[in-house]
Design a protein that fits this description.
- It is a single chain.
- By secondary structure, the protein is α/β, with parallel strands linked by helices.
- The chain is about 40% helix and about 20% strand.
- α4 (about 120-135) runs antiparallel to α9.
- The longest helix is centred in the C-terminal third of the chain and has 35 residues, at about 260-295.
- The chain is elongated.
């Protein structure tokens, strides 16, 4: 074989070798769902932190890549339908608002049963996750809805009361219709108020149209969703921080995921938990300032 021909053969072999990767990358399709819009803190951070962080970690060895389909704000499910949507496989991963499911998620009601305990989101979030590891009932509850529990989230430092008219004392709530979700409704009857089921997505309209006289909410959400426009009075009662969210994965999806991908989804869910808790604590005070700047008045109980 001539020198020139040998060189051509070697070059051709090198090109073929370069064209065929040693480890072909596997692409995994995942649909992420929640009924709340991207401006909600936990959705915003899922988009800006959770998804990029998962992608970054998987890119380290380039074995797996996730092709994300993000479906927020009711594209696939409403806030009250995330648990059922993930159960049926309408989404692969999502953020379940457990506070909505007072009948199905009693196992996660401990923070609601112990109000005025703490306004530390990190403490509550880590405590719930520790309980999930120690007591099988929490993970079994999600397993019964065809889901795998990854981590619990706390997205607020404390619930407060927001109303159309001044409420400076507990007795001022007598006869008022107050919107809230799930577990929170139990707080209202002792104050003489009538609890009306609702969610963050519709509190503004419920108050604006006169369906209710106010709502039970946390300051960051009140500022983000411009509640001062319709409920310019806030009673700061510091009821406390509570767990309201859980990141879960459809169990059938989980079974088909490689162990490496499972581990990354779980690990980043824990970091996402801590990030949300940190942000919730930081945004608490500044959000009250934003609410008052927008025209709201604050009364301390």
């Amino acid at each position: 074989m001539s020198w020139a021909r040998s060189l051509c053969v070697a070059a051709g072999a090198a090109l073929i070798t370069a064209a065929v990767p040693i480890h072909a990358q596997t692409t995994i399709n995942l649909t992420a769902i929640d009924g709340y819009p991207p401006r909600a803190l936990w959705i915003k951070e899922f988009i800006e932190f959770y998804i990029p962080e998962v992608d970054k970690r998987l890119a380290k060895d380039n074995k797996y890549k996730i092709r994300w389909n993000q479906a927020w704000g009711g594209q696939i499910v409403k806030p009250q339908g995330v648990l059922e949507g993930l159960q049926k496989g309408l989404g692969d991963i999502g953020i379940v608002t457990t506070a909505i499911y007072g009948d199905k998620m009693k196992v996660l009601s401990v923070a609601y049963a112990t109000p005025f305990t703490t306004t530390d989101p990190m403490l509550v979030a880590r405590t719930i996750d520790a309980m999930a590891e120690k007591f099988p009932g929490i993970k079994k509850t999600f397993a019964s809805y065809n889901q795998v529990f990854l981590s619990a989230q706390v997205v607020l430092d404390s619930y407060q009361m927001f109303t159309k008219t001044e409420a400076k004392a507990i007795q001022d709530f007598k006869g008022m219709k107050i919107a809230s979700a799930g577990f929170n409704l139990r707080y209202l009857a002792p104050a003489g108020a009538v609890g009306v089921a609702g969610s963050l997505n519709n509190y503004y309209n419920m108050i604006q149209t006169g369906v209710v006289d106010g709502c039970m909410l946390w300051p960051e959400a009140a500022a983000t969703f411009k509640l001062a426009e319709v409920a310019p009075f806030m009673m700061r009662a510091d009821i406390g921080a509570v767990n309201t969210k859980v990141v879960t994965v459809n169990a059938d999806t989980w079974k088909r995921l490689p162990p490496q991908v499972q581990a990354v989804l779980k690990d980043v869910a824990v970091e996402y938990r801590d990030l949300l808790a940190k942000l919730s604590a930081e945004l608490g005070a500044s959000s009250v300032a934003a609410y008052t700047k927008a025209g709201g008045k604050v009364f301390d109980l």
